[in-house]
Every structure is written in C-alpha cells, then in structure tokens.
Amino acid sequence: MPAVRRVRPVAHDDRLSLVEHLDELRSRLIVSLLVFFAAFAICYWQNDWLLHAINRPLEQAQHLNSDGTTTNKGGPLQEQATYARRVGVAAKLTAPVLQGQRDINRVLSRGRKLTAAEQALLRRQDQLLAKALAAEQAVARAVPRNQERQPVTLGVTEPFVTTFTVAGYAALLLSLPFLLYQAYAFVLPAFSPAERKVALPVMAMVPVLFIAGCAFGYFVALPRAVDFLQNFNNESFDILIRASDYYKFSVVLIALIGLLFQIPVGVLAVTRLGIISGRQLAKNRGYVILGLSIVAAVATPTPDPVTMLIAMAPLVVLFELSVLMARIFERRADRAAAADQAESEDDDEDDDVDLEPWAAEDPDGDRSLS
User: Fold this and answer.
1) N or C end of the chain: smaller count of CB under 10 Å?
2) Among candidates 313, 284, 100, 318, which has minimal Cα distance to 209?
3) How far apart are the C-alpha atoms of 216 and 225, rounded to whole Å?
C-alpha cells in the first residue's frame, strides 16, 4: 500500500499482513520524525528566547530590585555582584552632582574679584571635577545591562550541547500531541468499536493534561523550588549554577509534574477496564488524598508545606474530576446494559408469542413442516 494511506487509521475489519503492518509502522515513524525535526528547527532557531524563558525562575530567585540591587545575603560572589551594582548606581547619581558643582564654581568666579591664587585654585578644582566627572560617567556607562547571574558552562562544547539538548526537550514537548496521535492511530485497528469508546477519551486527555501539568510546573512549582534551593544557606556557599545541571533539574521537575497530571487518565483506565469502580474510589477518598500528599511531598524538592500544598491542590482537583467522570461513564454503561437487557427480554417474549399457535394445534409436537 502507498505510504500516504498510512497517515490514516486502518479500519478494524481490515486484514493486513506482517509486511504491511511494518510498512505502516515505518511510514508513521518517518512522519513523526519529520514533525519532530520541524519542531526542533523552530526551537533551535528561537533558542535565545527558549533559554531566557527557562532562566526566568533562576532570575526571579535573586530578588533584584528596580535599581539592580538585591536584598539577599549570599556568599562572596553574591556580595561582589551586589557591590558592583551599588557602585554603578552611585556613579549614576554622582555624575550630575559633579557637573553641577563645576557650573556653580564658574558662576561664583564670574561675580567676584579673585586674586591670582584663588583663580589658580578654582582652575585646579575645575580640572579635578572634570576628571572625577569623566570617571563617574565612564563607570555609569560600564554598568552591565544584564544584572542577573546566568548559569555557567565549564566545557568547550557545553554551550552548544546544552542549547542543543534544551531545544530537543522543547521540540519533544511541542510535537508530543502529534506523536501520541500517530501511536494511537497505529494501535487503533486492534480495538473493537466498543473498546475505541474506552480508549478515545483516555488518549485524547493525555496530551492536554501533560501540557497543563508542564505549564503548572513552569509557572508555579519551578520558581518556588528554585527560589528555595538557591537561597537555602547561601551565606555559606559560593553558588555557581552549572547550566546542564540546572536545565536537567528544570526539565525533570516539569516533566514529573506533567506525568502527575495524568491521574485522571489512570483513574479512567482502571475504572473503564473494570478493575475498580468510581464508587469504590469515592469511598476510599481519604487514602487516595493521603497518597497524593506523599507524592506531592516527594515530587517537590522543597520541604515547606506551602509548596507541597500548591503542588497537591491540582492533583486533588484532578482526582475528584476523574472520579466524577468515571461515575458518569459507569451510569451510562449501566443504563446501556439495562436497555440491552430489556430489549433482549422483549425479543424473548416475542419469540414465545410466535410459538403459541403451533403449540395449540400440535401440543405433542408431531405436526409435519412439509
């Protein structure tokens, strides 16, 4: 079969040989790789914006003021950075004062009759003010625009490798919905129409919940985790953050929270397969919430209860929603089963009614059908 046909799911009643299945798998892998490479090209093209977005929680953890200073007490490196910023702020404030003092001296010298010694002193003072003004203006111009401390790299190839890796992670996240669709379309023919009704909502929820979990991890969990870890006992350490370690930590934390958001998928899967019912889950809600609190405490690297509650709250909400959805599906299934049973009973009654005339004419069952 041509490869173009393989981008669509095969029907359940189609019969394909092993070679045709392998051909379909190859076609879907090729399409998936093309989509991934296209997403990777976009992410690598925008790697500056991507790295800046990942570095934002680290920048927020430094608690910079509007003037570039920080109130955090850190090690020698942090103190040197704070000192350099304050020197720049002082230079910007001092330069106008020196210029104003020069102007005042010139005005005073014009309105008075000065001796030669006083004029020489004023000229000397004007020269010193000019040099000091030039030095302060140079310091003010040299104040770095990038006030935040960035992750450091140690190897020659580490900047390229780290950028390449971060772009790959972002491309995988960006192309994940399409990759999941391709995986679903490949295994779809093995499902019966009834099984598709179970698998379709579950598969459709996976990318949506994963992206929602990643967004929650980036905007809520990651900034709090980085803020706590970077400012924990920072007066005793010279904190240098290696880029590869920081990005690995960020990606793992975001992906872990994205996986934790798959709780509704797991609940729907076990309930639709009949392993456990929604009523049983609702009855044992306390044990489930206790387990979610343990998972939230392990997933968040900070020991403070606020961060744990922030990570736990969406998990509890998702669990309650999944239980509600499971009970709705169970009620629909019960109504459908009751309707089928009632229909089968009606069919049995119709069959009994059709047999009554034959039984009345020939109760012994010896009537010939010829």
Assistant:
1) C
2) 318
3) 13
Q: b/e per residue, 20-40, with b = 16+ CB within 10 A?
A: eeebbeebbeebbeebbeebb
In angstroms, the CA 229 to CA 48 distance is 25
Helices (H), the chain: 18-45, 47-60, 76-110, 116-141, 158-187, 193-216, 222-230, 243-260, 263-272, 278-283, 285-299, 305-361
Which span out of 81-85, 192-196, 204-208 was modeled with the highest average pLDDT? 204-208
85: amino acid identity, one letter: R
Cα 201 from Cα 195, distance rounded (Å): 11
Q: What separation, in Å, do the N-terminal and C-terminal C-alpha atoms of the chain show?
A: 53
CB of 213 closer than 8 Å to CB of 258 = yes
Q: How many of the other CB atoms lie within 10 Å of CB of 359?
A: 11
Cβ-based burial of 62 (10 A; exposed 0-12, middle 13-18, buried ≥19) = buried
Token representation of residue 153: 């790299």
Distance CA 119, CA 137 (A): 26
pTM (global) more than 0.70: no
In three-state secondary structure terms, 195 is: helix
pLDDT tens column, 212-264: 888 888 888 888 888 887 777 777 777 788 888 888 888 888 888 887 887 77
User: How many residues in the chain?
Assistant: 370
What is the Cα Rg of the chain in Å? Answer: 36
- Provide the token pair at 99: 């210029």
Q: How far apart are CA 223 and CA 55, in angstroms?
A: 10
**Residue matched to tokens 């927020």:** 60
